[in-house]
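Job type: complex structure
Entries:
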Amino acid sequence: MRQLWQAASDVDYGPEEASMAAYLREGEARAMRLGNRGPIRFDATGALAADIVEAYWRVGFYVFTGVLGADELADIESDIADILARAPANEGATIDHAGQAALGADCHAPTFFWAPPLGDPWGGTSAANGRHPVHMYAPAAGRDAPDKVIILILGALQFSEACLRVYGHPQLLATAAAINGADFTPFNEALFIKQPGLGASVAWHQDGVTHWESPQFDQGTHGFNFMAQLYGCTAANGVWVVPGTHKVGKVDIAKLVAEAGSERLPQAVPMIAEPGDVIISNRQTVHGSFANTSVRPRVTLNLGFHRRASVLGVTAGGVHNALATYDDARIRERARLIGYAIDARRQRFPHEKAYCYEPQADEPERYRWDGAARADLHDYNLLDLSI
Ligand SMILES: O=C(O)CCC(=O)C(=O)O
């Protein structure tokens, strides 16, 4: 399966290589001192362990180790191989490399996003409401690099049953309930792909557009993403975070970069994880990732969740999908994926105790994972709850 990831010809940070190498090393050492990693644990009452909750809110992310086992990772890798084989042959194409209709070609919602190899598609642009104010340094790509590479796939659960099953993971859903309340809601799901020697950067940003000025704003208002790691992540290919920035409102990222003299923010730390680890990451932190000049691929499955109070009755959208007011029916409709995911997981891992999602507790039969449900996933991300 490793041939999925072609070894790119030698690339590095050019004139920045020595500074970058030192930054990665020092950042990793800072990250390992934060006290925010370990298995998901619950106390005798079933509540998420208090020290995990404390560390998550203190830092803004927590690395849950060993969440996904070897079987599950093999399922995911096989689906990723299938997705990449059936992806559009290039940006905007409706056919794949074999001349067949490409995945996502019949979707109305956005699916595949492309970037120049080792480039920065969003920094310093107006994309996503201009949330990435600074353009990241783009190392020179190798001579044999393609013009563009896939960096992001939205609506990912319609393309991969293995990813859908991660969405139904009982310990992850119990964690979502602990952080966002038992009536938590979906946000969106995505695959970030950072190919070795090719993967583009994601410029420093804070997620969320809706509630920054709200009197009710707090450290959890714009929700969190689980970031499930297929191959793990390193300082070179992983997401970096400025700890604590989820608490302080909008940060002047351009000023931070100007003060640092480069995009190597001295306050930031990398998420370091092994295959099967899942990171919970607050969307309000200042975070981003550098161009991946390393030889290791990163595949992250992002699964986003919100508090119900952050989406119910809120008019939002326009970034991931159309502007709309999110009423109860819209939330229920979008949350059907949680029900499908729980049942899909039950079928694959029958010995695991399935999660009971409180808003669906009265209708356990409704969300059966079968052929009709599969078809029902088409374009599901038109209803993402984007705030
Ligand atoms: O995975 C990455 O490189 C970027 C992730 C990110 O920016 C996000 O989840 O908001």
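Summary: Residues 97 and 320 are 27 Å apart (CA to CA). The pocket of 2-oxoglutaric acid is lined by residues 192, 202, 207, 225, 239, 287, 289, 300, 302 (CB under 6 Å).
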